[in-house]
Amino acid sequence: MARPKIALIGAGQIGGTLAHLAAMKELGDVVLFDISEGTPEGKALDIAESGPSEGFDARLKGTSDYADIAGADVCIVTAGVPRKPGMSRDDLLGINLKVMKAVGEGIRENAPDAFVICITNPLDAMVWALQKFSGLPTEKVCGMAGVLDSARFRHFLSLEFDVSMKDVTAFVLGGHGDTMVPLTRYSTVAGIPLPDLVKMGWTSQEKLDAIVQRTRDGGAEIVGLLKTGSAFYAPATSAIEMAESYLKDQKRLLPCAAYCDGVFGLDGFYVGVPTVIGAGGVERIVDIKLTKDEQAMFDNSVAAVKGLVEACKGIDDSLA
Ligand code: APR
């Protein structure tokens, strides 16, 4: 059987890391697409030359021609500009919306059967626009945010409790931004919910609140340190986890930005929710019941996403 084809639209920091991970994990052959002359070809060749040492079987190709993504099984989109210090994800809206239009058309014409994972920020608005521009079914277009946000939460919790990250699970809902909603009662250490661990004296409510805030600010913390760009190792790893669940029909239950219509009280918006990702794409959205406080945080997050979607409609008439 032919190897799956993975098209990476954007061959920058995240795109290059995605290509390396996809090859090392032998998820399929990789096509790196970018408009920056020489970048995709250079990265593809460099990664291919790591193959003999690492021992992976995967072909890598760099291109600036959409025809080369033809028939891709998975497209992961990072095309656009990242944040610089002092910028919010929302500041990227105008520039990256134009990029989503070009990318959406490229995917529609060349890879209409692909499972599409968007990473470009501001995520929840960009994935909404990408689905509209591409015209692909909503269950085949989703955004990567929740896996990354919950990975950050899990990492910080594992440091606080001095336990393996493998035994920490965490749930983060809502938009990918300052309004994200970390759900502490569904976040656990080996099944013990965080509120119980507070009662058991493993940590204090103050420390837990600080970890929640650090999770919300996780992207900005890295931007502040790097100064010339934003996070790329963990975002790429998170998207690969989603792509692998699709390609291997693992049916992992992962938080991702999914099209919500008739769930979570929403009517046609992308926002971070628990999903099952399998061969059908986003096969199921787990419509959990939120407490009053969680619902208020979720509503606040959704309002921020809706504001950005309205701004997109204002910029591009075809989205209205
Ligand atoms: N088509 C294809 N590629 C494009 C286009 C386009 N129309 N416009 C820009 N690009 C490419 C750039 O040439 C660059 O190589 O997108 C790439 C983006 O890479 P980086 O600048 O290194 O950004 P990266 O850190 O990978 O982040 C990409 O993901 O997390 C988000 O906020 C982040 O929106 C940003 C995106």
Automatic annotation (TrEMBL):
**Which top EC class is named for this enzyme in its record?**
oxidoreductase
Q: Where are the transmembrane segments?
A: none
Cite the entry's keywords alphabetically: NAD, Oxidoreductase, Tricarboxylic acid cycle
Name the Pfam families on file: Ldh_1_C (PF02866), Ldh_1_N (PF00056)
* Top-level taxon: Bacteria
GO BP of this protein: lactate metabolic process; tricarboxylic acid cycle
Q: What is its EC number?
A: 1.1.1.37
Could you give a GO molecular-function term held by this entry? L-lactate dehydrogenase (NAD+) activity
Q: Which HAMAP family match?
A: Malate_dehydrog_3
Enumerate the spans annotated as Lactate/malate dehydrogenase C-terminal domain: 148-307
Q: Which reaction does it catalyse?
A: (S)-malate + NAD(+) = oxaloacetate + NADH + H(+)
The active site consists of 176 (proton acceptor)
Q: Binding of substrate: at which residues?
A: 83, 89, 121, 152
Q: State the family it belongs to.
A: Belongs to the LDH/MDH superfamily. MDH type 3 family.
User: Any idea what this protein is called?
Assistant: Malate dehydrogenase
Q: What is the lineage of its organism?
A: Bacteria, Pseudomonadati, Pseudomonadota, Alphaproteobacteria, Rhodobacterales
**Physiological role:** Catalyzes the reversible oxidation of malate to oxaloacetate.
